[in-house]
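Technical appendix A lists one of the benchmark inputs used to test multi-chain prediction within the project. The record comprises two sequence entries:
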Amino acid sequence: MSKKWVYFFDEVAKAEEYVGGDWEKVRGLLGGKGANLAEMERIGVPVPPGYTVTTEACNAYLDAGETYPEGLNEQMLESLKTVETKTGKKFGDPQNPLLVSCRSGAKFSMPGMMDTVLNIGLNDETIKGMIALTGDERFVYDLYRRLIQMFGSVVMLAPGEDFEEVLTEARAKAGVETDTELNAEDWKAVAEEFKAIFKRHTGRDFPTDPYEQLNLATAAVFKSWFGKRAVDYRNAAGIAHDLGTAVNIQTMVFGNLGNDSATGVALTRNGTTGEHRIEGDYLMNAQGEDVVAGIRLTEDINKLKEEMPAAYGEFEQICQKLEKHYREMQDVEFTIEKNKLWMLQTRDGKRTAQAAVRIAVEMVEEGMITREEAVMRVTPAQIDFFLHPQFDREAVKAAKAKGDMLGSGLNVSPGAAFGVVALDADLAEKWAKEEGRDVIMVRPETRPDDVHGMLAAQGILTSRGGRTSHAALVARQFGKPAVVGMSALEIDLDKRQISVGGLVIKEGEWISIDGTEGELYTGKLPTEVPEFEDPELMKLLSWADEFRKLGVWANADYPADAQRALKYGAEGIGLCRTEHMFFEAERMPFVQKMIMTDNADERKEALDALLPFQREDFAGLFRVMDGLPVIIRLIDPPLNEFLPSESDLLRELCDLKLQLKDAGAPEEIDKLQKQIEDKELILKRVESLHETNPMLGMRGVRLAIHIPELTTMQVRAIFEAACTVAKEGVDVHPEIMIPLTSHVNELKVQQEVLEAEAKKVMEEQGIEPHYKFGTMIEIPRAAITCDQIAEYAQFISFGTNDLTQTTFGISRDDAEASFLIEYLEREILPENPFAVIDRDGVGFLMEMAVKKGRAVRPDMECGICGEHGGDPESIQLCHELDLTYVSCSPFRVPVARLAAAHAALRDKIKD
Amino acid sequence: MSKKWVYFFDEVAKAEEYVGGDWEKVRGLLGGKGANLAEMERIGVPVPPGYTVTTEACNAYLDAGETYPEGLNEQMLESLKTVETKTGKKFGDPQNPLLVSCRSGAKFSMPGMMDTVLNIGLNDETIKGMIALTGDERFVYDLYRRLIQMFGSVVMLAPGEDFEEVLTEARAKAGVETDTELNAEDWKAVAEEFKAIFKRHTGRDFPTDPYEQLNLATAAVFKSWFGKRAVDYRNAAGIAHDLGTAVNIQTMVFGNLGNDSATGVALTRNGTTGEHRIEGDYLMNAQGEDVVAGIRLTEDINKLKEEMPAAYGEFEQICQKLEKHYREMQDVEFTIEKNKLWMLQTRDGKRTAQAAVRIAVEMVEEGMITREEAVMRVTPAQIDFFLHPQFDREAVKAAKAKGDMLGSGLNVSPGAAFGVVALDADLAEKWAKEEGRDVIMVRPETRPDDVHGMLAAQGILTSRGGRTSHAALVARQFGKPAVVGMSALEIDLDKRQISVGGLVIKEGEWISIDGTEGELYTGKLPTEVPEFEDPELMKLLSWADEFRKLGVWANADYPADAQRALKYGAEGIGLCRTEHMFFEAERMPFVQKMIMTDNADERKEALDALLPFQREDFAGLFRVMDGLPVIIRLIDPPLNEFLPSESDLLRELCDLKLQLKDAGAPEEIDKLQKQIEDKELILKRVESLHETNPMLGMRGVRLAIHIPELTTMQVRAIFEAACTVAKEGVDVHPEIMIPLTSHVNELKVQQEVLEAEAKKVMEEQGIEPHYKFGTMIEIPRAAITCDQIAEYAQFISFGTNDLTQTTFGISRDDAEASFLIEYLEREILPENPFAVIDRDGVGFLMEMAVKKGRAVRPDMECGICGEHGGDPESIQLCHELDLTYVSCSPFRVPVARLAAAHAALRDKIKD
């Protein structure tokens, strides 16, 4: 007996048995569409009779050099017989002909697969029976010409334009504007001409044998699996090439058989807001493609309730049934043929981030899914949405209604933005910086020398390029909304204007782009940041907190940041960068004085002046973080970051010297000479501090060892603050972190100095707050020797920004504007390692560090405070490495909470 | 029965049995001195009778709170009895008293241990017997006062100055200049006064009981094991504190009993040249300490042959015997007492590098040692000596004779140098750079701001600081001869002069320093580079080549370098830095043109002009290295290294602008304006190429991927050269090396481009030389993912300079002038990781890379081309990691050959 290649829609149980009961495997065998049709049939949803030819048949066909495998033809014929029995119609019967559709349906939907062919079974004989049955000659000839047209272009690959040309001529001849105005005779003539086109292009007559039609269409679906577009897509999306596609053959039903017929599409809940109410569109007396094509204005599905209450009632029940069955919001297609409701397709519905959260939470409350499932159903990117500006929803509706939406491209960087069009980077920068205007930079594509303009702009729009184009990568990098690869966009650099479909927008005029949706609008659409304190979101995140094992802390330098972090759910401060406090205007003079002097007393004086500022900063943080840990990193950057740049000084000096040449008045000369002297003094110091590679130079613990007074001051400030605040009754948990350690001895030396100062302060204050001493792991050697480091460090925190720089030997400042983007465009690097932790390199070092460190100190607190701490993929890795916490920007805390829960739940699923 | 604490000199067999036959353990038990005395006794060399108290007795004494362990006293008394029997004298016998010496003798000699006490056994009674026996009252009272003096100062720790004061007074009273002029009565009076000093300081009488003298001296030796200097030394040298010291008690013999007595020291071969002839000094009628102290002018040992032919004949035979027995050149002490020769000590002799090589080689030829032993006996540092300038030997002799040697300090950086004294860094730099003078920079100590002067100087001399002082570290770093910590040196910065012992040298006058020996001379001593092609050295290195497993290759950029490398024994070129070729005057314009242009055609034109230069360079290398591999690294540095610096340009521009202000003539104005324009163009390019951290920027493979034409040109040049030279009949083995890989995809992308070009050239040329494709491993990520890299790379080469920079996060350029030196001074880092591979960090990564790489490609060639390739300790690591070869500067090749042999032989020893 030959293999079973064909499953009737009611044979899903057999398919399940064959694959071993796994629904994913059923989808693999029958394709997504076929599996869902069979599933609907099983649960008693009315589906027009039909059957699915399996993906295995497709593979066998392709393997055998495009020949049907043994038994396939017989099984198809048999299945057709069953359809005939069920429908009481007969395939090819001139009196009561059965018409069927043929649709591809792979496990995952993908572009490039063969389009649907409808109305298979029509020929010069059977149309007669159809006309007799429907009494509508025009309708039948329209069906017929559609079959010839689809068959010719889709199956036989004749050029679609030839068919379109005939239609244009036919309308002209009949003196009408639209196809709907053509009558039966017109369609009859068109059908004949289509047959001629068919013959001209294929060298053969249009096949009148319904079985031949069906076999050709089925084979065409099989062959389309290796069409170029499909192959390219699978390569890009990482989908295996041996999955094959299934073919679905289904009885035609018609929503255009009069006013007791209709067709429509619907979501079982609102896809924008998530509200639990069916949302959809339909048309009376129409075919499915008319709803999608937008030829006629559709009606809101609520009207169907009034028009066809019985059918709608049944439809509502089916929607509930499908949701309950699939435990997911569904996107369905239906047709009502002479008051009889048929479901043609169901699949999980697409939704906005807000809808995703609301639906997930409400489904838990409806008892439909578990909390774990709800948490897993919302992606971190959807949480991220709540933190980006978006266009006002009503304004978007209005803009679309007005036709202000000009088209769409690739949604490569989320968020919405408006601005005036600027067609080059220099102008974008000038308008943004000098004139304070909001700018959207529009370019055919971007290059490294455009980056300054992109940084100055509110958003980026290009006509070329894909998801890994320079523009896309840079935009994501810097969090700028961007739409790229909008091919309908024409950019005229001579006329300084852009246009879409003839609508011209001059440089300097307003446009708005939606990077989340990939849409372009003319004019200025108002934006809003979605309500973060959305009650459903709060609920979902609180569930996430129950599941996650990773702590979620935040990087915060000021009390206000800490406040925000707390509000977003942070459980500690993972990184307070003490040097940020030095940059404030009232403090800089002291910082510069400290750097400029060689005199120990003057240095001490400057540091003494800084101490109260630092103490107050820390006290503020401790008060906010009452009861929670606060990790304070001692000074990290090289000193010359606090002085002007050498080239700026040289330029300024030159200006002064040129002025001096022109100066006449003695007091002016004196003044200039004094200025020159001062600048030269600073220049000398800057030169003496100059480093070829400051990133690898005198900074972090190296600076602290070199100028111990500096860190002693910082430790004093921390402990004076901690003691003072503790006396106020606040529960303080300071943790002192040493940056840039590469050798354990650095830690040893620093610990001695710092512990001594801490002890001194605590004795002075008469109180001993609990504290920890630890280090950043941001140098490969520190990771490699973490066992040695753990002898001294009570905690470690991965500084993955620097660790990535040193592990890759890449200077981030330089690379992200140059070769790194090139590498990502050319896919030399699969991901930007500064966005997502590089597992093989940096991740390997992290794993080693945690293992070696905890082997020595089992309870060692291990965290991450690099920017990766807010990236979901990196958080997954941190979970796998069993870190204590991730620390990220306060704005990323909600995303991190969800991502951490996902990581933990994935473990559960695996178990 | 109590433990055996005491071994008579003839009981070495028992000691061996006790420790299990291992000579090292015998030395551990009896100490170096005791073991050698016993060994001499065993082989029939005349040694004054005596015994050794073991190190175990010392430990037991110290463990028991400074109490003799059970049995020790009895065993000592018994041993004394044996000595009495052997000598026919009796300890404490007024008629025929036995006198003994008491000397410490640990396994390793170290400072701070108790000095020798001679003449134990003398007291007011026994001196009478001695006078009767020798008939020399003066001699005996001299012995007596020496005992009291040594006992008082060494055992009882009375201040030595007090004794010296008495001597001074005695000389004054007697109206004489030297001690030798004092008579018996004088010494008698001195002895009495010494007794008074003794009593004053110790509160007790000088012990007249010989047994008490002996016990006190023995206990003092034991106690000195934990003296501060000894403990400090052991800590620094890594010697265990539980070894303990032995005590040697030996019958006194006297070389000062008339003209049939003598005493001397000798080396069994010449310690300077290695010549196989006894070399030594002696004094007739004198005591050993007189020879060492230099109070009297010693005679050459050859004269002894004439003076006492019989004794000398015996001495010669003993020397031969000792050499044969120890299989090493010996350093011996002897005394002839009334024509009877006694050997007092033997130990391995110190020697110069040249002597070490010659002795090792000749001993093999004499059948005394194996080739393996000969190779192990010469240190890599001794080979290094052959490559540094040294003072002419005759000139040194003459200078010493003339008194031009002013003194010595620490020999911290080898080599000899002369120059005029410069007392600060700026002056040193000015004289050296502007006036082309040879300069020795002299400072009390150096600091980071002195480095520019040190670099300009020929050598460095300081009055303060130790082996890890800034001056020592920097000098070694840059290969400058240096003597530091010369405390006798006075530096007067006001008078601008230095002085030693009253001799004044003005700034600007000549001095010479020997960093190998640590010596300072006045005047200009001629230097010479020792003959590298020393036949013994050649022989030794050829033996080393037989034993080593590591290949030794050289880093060479030009044919002349390759020639030298071959001469020194290199077996391949491990690194040819192609960009070095770009820096030559005739090529720079093309290189700069290539960088300055944005136009592809112009760039190609510039590259086409460079191609023939590169081709000729490579052809030359291939011809020299006929039959051997040549690894050519494609361009590595960032492009801005080929352009002037930004600050230089800014300064030059400012000068031009200031000139323009003053310019009058229109043609001058035109000219200046043109110059300004040109400079501004270059400045713009320099700014656009500017990188914050160029070390981590657009260089290496990143540059190659960005400008593929550049590396395509290089590959074409390599293959055109290889094909051309191969057609000449030369056996070429090019290996193309990609620098700075951090991700396997970089290699993949480059390999495609480069293989294509190589194939094209080989097709054009009609010949296919064998070649390899590989990469540097100089980024941590490359080491970590070496399994992935091995899929593409046929070979890897560790660029340990950059790998150290990235693994530590240290920029070498910046660090070696700043915190790295501070770290070494403060011992935060145990070694300079740029000199010796850091095992824990960089070594760990190397090991992982080799293992992962060879797991994928078992025959992968793995080498090292960083500067560590010439460092013996690093070579040991490379051997352990089973690298294929080390590649180093041609000058380091001989050192590497020996070090590699050592590493291999150490394995054999372990087996």
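Chain B has a mean pLDDT of 91. Chain B touches chain A through 60 residues (CB under 8 Å). Comparable benchmark entries are summarised in Table A2.
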